[in-house]
Write a structure and sequence with these properties.
The chain has 18 helices and 13 strands. It is α/β, with parallel strands linked by helices and 421 residues long.
Length: 421
């Protein structure tokens, strides 16, 4: 990567702590704990918070994001929101775009080698990240950086010296790698380097705290080890849960089509959020909003549909404003409450077929399901309607042998008019 990448916003080295400087450390820890799975080590974090409060020097809170896809979705915002919580306490958020690590491909949670992206693809995706990050983070106390800034200049000798500070045995302890070895699946050499590069990022940035999903725990702990190797105080590791997507099963992912993008249109966001299960809704409240756990607990006595509408409105307000949220709620109620079709329903044309075709195949080809397997799952769950009739047979066929107009409804949010001609 070129050396032209610079931070968009540089927080000053010393800033006066916010009004939270008078808040007792136990209360600060309570605020930071919201939604967190693990803090390693919490007693060390307490000491860092005390020192920051005493000196007025903010902690440096790092989270890395590899731009493998162009858009940020609610799954990404779990870490970003936790960064914001630290900002609320007067600290500096370092939003690290892993343009160098993306060239390697993060092996976390994977059983096969990840496809590598080109530099051009990474740069395009990184640009969209830069445009979206400040919908959550405070620009005044945010540093946006690129790890190519130090990794590209490290050189072959520097990389060898870095690799000498960690053992192969420790790397192979990683569950992803050990599982692949047991199953005789290949591990590329470049993948073994990924934890070292992510760990060295913490050295280069002198991070006090690093945030990551539970699947990143190994990489984050490598950062603690490498900081000690380089004579630095070890960072705190804080892990957050992985947010399930709309299907309630898989981690939210654009490739799986189960995501809510923060740039999605308000009506689309509202419909998507209303399609999640009542149980999953509470996790979205906890991880995708700043509402306190006490207030979330108080909602559990209310009707789930009403609470879910409030969740959708809260999330839309965060990214599009209160007026857009109100309009999206009205739109949803008019369409789904009164059984009306949306005025802007998408329409696609199909040529007349010589014979009926499997509905699962058609749903996938129309983009109503990301795959035939997922189309089958949607039918089995009762989420598919054709011309106002629920489809429950996975072997059902669509008769497109004669001209006509048909309406598909998938879940509670997706409509499609199909014209056979």
């Amino acid at each position: 990567m070129s050396g032209t990448h610079r931070s968009l916003t540089r927080a000053p080295a010393l800033i006066p702590m916010s009004d939270f400087k008078s808040i007792p450390i136990p209360d600060q820890l309570d605020y930071i704990r919201k939604g967190a799975v693990e803090i390693i080590r919490e007693e060390e974090l307490a000491e860092k918070l005390k020192r920051a409060q005493k000196t007025g020097k903010p902690l440096r809170i790092k989270a890395g994001f590899d731009p493998t896809a162009p858009d940020i979705h609610l799954g990404h915002t779990v870490l970003m929101r936790k960064m914001k919580h630290f900002q609320d306490l007067g600290h500096t958020a370092i939003f690290l775009i892993g343009d160098f690590t993306t060239l390697i491909g993060d092996p976390s949670g994977r059983n096969v080698t990840r496809k590598q992206l080109s530099k051009e693809e990474i740069l395009v995706n990184a640009e969209t990240y830069k445009q979206q990050v400040f919908k959550i983070l405070n620009p005044a106390t945010t540093v946006v950086d690129f790890n190519s800034r130090w990794m590209s200049g490290l050189g072959a000798d520097g990389f060898i010296k870095l690799a000498a500070r960690y053992t192969v045995a420790r790397i192979i302890e990683r569950e992803d790698f050990s599982n692949r070895l047991k199953n005789r699946l290949p591990i590329s050499m470049h993948e073994l380097l990924y934890p070292l590069v992510q760990g060295y990022d913490s050295v280069a940035l002198e991070a006090d705290v690093e945030l990551g999903g539970t699947d990143q725990k190994f990489n984050l702990l490598v950062g603690r080890d490498l900081q000690r190797e380089y004579g630095q105080e070890s960072q705190i590791v804080l892990t957050m849960p992985l947010l399930e997507g709309l299907d309630g099963v898989q981690k939210m992912s654009k490739s799986l089509g189960n995501y809510v993008g923060i740039n999605d249109a308000p009506n689309e966001q509202f419909g998507k959020i209303m399609s999640i299960s009542d149980d999953l809704m509470w996790k979205y409240w906890e991880l995708a909003t700043d509402v306190s756990m006490k207030d979330i607990a108080a909602m559990k006595s209310r009707h789930p549909k009403e609470v879910k509408e409030d969740l959708a409105a809260t999330i839309i307000t965060q990214y599009h404003g209160a007026a857009a949220a109100s309009a999206a709620r009205d739109h949803f109620r008019s369409v789904f409450g009164q059984k009306e079709l949306p005025a802007d329903i998408e329409t696609k044309e199909l040529p007349i077929n010589a014979a009926p075709m499997k509905l699962t195949k058609l749903l996938a080809s129309l983009g109503l399901a990301p795959s035939i397997t997922e189309a089958q799952r949607l039918i089995e769950s009762g989420a598919v309607h054709l011309d106002d009739q629920r489809v429950t047979n996975v072997k059902a066929e669509f008769d497109g042998t004669a001209p006509g107009e048909h309406t598909f409804k998938v879940g509670r949010r997706r409509f499609l008019r199909v014209v056979v001609k």
